[in-house]
Amino acid sequence: MGAMTFQYTKTDTHYVQYYSEGAWEEGMLINDDFLKMPAMATVLHYGQEAFEGLKAFRRKDGKVQIFRPYENAKRFQLSCGYLLMPEVEIEAFVQAVIKTVKANLKYVPPYGSGGALYIRPYMIGVGQTLAPMPSSRYLFGVIVTPVGALFKGALKPVDLLVSDYDRVAPQGTGQYKIGGNYAASLFAQHLARQKGYDDCLFLDPATHKKIEEVGAANFFGITKDNIYISPNSPSILKSITNMSLKYLAETSLRMKISSDDIDIDALDHLVEAGACGTAAVITPIRSLCHQEKVHVFPTQDEAGPVTQKLYKLLTGIQTGDVADPDHWTTLVE
Ligand code: PLP
Ligand code: COI
After folding, report:
1. What is the 280 CA–ligand 2 centroid distance (Å)?
2. Domains by residue range for the chain, with CATH
3. Which numbered atom of ligand 2 lies nearest the CA of 277?
4. Ligand nearest to the CA of 277
């Protein structure tokens, strides 16, 4: 097994299922990780692609469980729907995920390693059309690969550059998990990394005054009044990790939750800040650089106390060490 970073390592088996003539064909497990499709496929020219990201974890008892797959299934339906792609039924999505994990159980990193099996369901238009129109043929697939965290590693704070560019438009595709949003983020991320930052942070595309999210993670803060605050906007992806943290902050830590705007020029009320997501897990934010001005959060090189508690609860539930609050995990029998 490779080093625990966020990168693709070939596993044994992939799931593929084709849709044509208005119906889903039987799904298959295949051993080849290359796809064959027409050079004129809609995914290749017009970006007709949606995806999901979720993880399977090894528990102390050796069993494997998947974190909140039903939530990913629901979001996948929204993303596919917006791109006029066919619907995968919730249970069919979850069963395809389970099947693929089951066929690759040996790649689920050991309990206590901090790693997980990353699961990447996706749908692409594979029918050919020259005019920009929806495809008539689709592929729904699932890939799995063992990973560590996306950023530096567990609870290591990062420095972010606030981007002058937008990943999405105000009434655009931000709430959907589609490939085009990530293509649109590449340049801004590249600029940030070139300047030595770990990633960029995007502002709201309408006014450029409010914090939206990181390229592949939501933003949250903890206020001086001990409120968990995370912005809400139609151009932010509705993170399942963030939804889970809100629940844990409210029920386990007895905190108040707020989805108020966070003004990029008024950050002094935040005592902690972080990025959260399936790949990012919970990554504390050390500083934000906005128009040459650097704001360093009070926790500096540490993860703040609330961030640490949330991290322990979340990762504990994921690996089965903390009681599952509400059917969040699905056991792979
Ligand atoms: N925001 C963006 C743009 C993402 O790509 C992701 C990753 O999926 C997230 C937020 C976090 O979402 P989730 O917690 O559902 O993985
Ligand atoms: C996630 O699944 O957490 C993602 O954001 C996917 C990503 C690394 C592009």
Report:
1. 8
2. 14-147 (3.30.470.10), 158-318 (3.20.10.10)
3. 3
4. 1
254 Cβ contact partners less than 8 Å away, ≥ 6 residues apart: none
**Any residues with CB less than 8 A from the CB of 187 and at least 6 apart, and which?**
165
Does residue 218 line the site of ligand 1, with CB under 6 A? yes
Nearest listed ligand to the Cα of residue 120? 2
Task: Say how far apart CA 277 and CA 303 lie, in whole Å.
Answer: 16
- Quote the pLDDT of residue 78: 98
**Structure token pair of residue 35:** 């796809």
**Is the minimum distance from the CB of 119 to ligand 2 under 6 angstroms?**
no
Give dist(CA 62, CA 64) in Å, integer: 7
Angle at 59 between CA 63 and CA 156, to 5 degrees: 145
Separation between Cα atoms, residue 197 and residue 161, nearest integer Å: 6
> Residue 153: what pLDDT?
75
* pLDDT at residue 1 in the model: 42
What is the pLDDT at residue 149?
78
Q: Is 277 in the pocket of ligand 1 (CB under 6 A)?
A: yes
If DSSP states are collapsed to H, E and C, what string results for 137-194?
EEEEEEEEEEECCCCCCCCCCEEEEECCCCCCCCCCCCCCCEHHHHHHHHHHHHHHHH
Which tokens hold the place of 261? 């705007």
Q: What is the pTM of this model?
A: 0.97
Are 215 and 275 in contact, with CB atoms under 8 Å apart?
A: no
**Given the CA of residue 120, which atom of ligand 2 is nearest to it?**
2
75 — phi, psi (to 5°)?
-65, -35
- The 10s digit of each residue's pLDDT in 231-262 is 999 999 999 999 999 999 999 999 999 999 99
How far is 216 from 219, CA to CA, in rounded Å? Answer: 10
What is the per-residue pLDDT across 103-162, written as a single tens digit (0 to 9) for each? Answer: 999 999 999 999 999 999 999 999 999 999 999 999 999 999 999 878 877 799 999 999
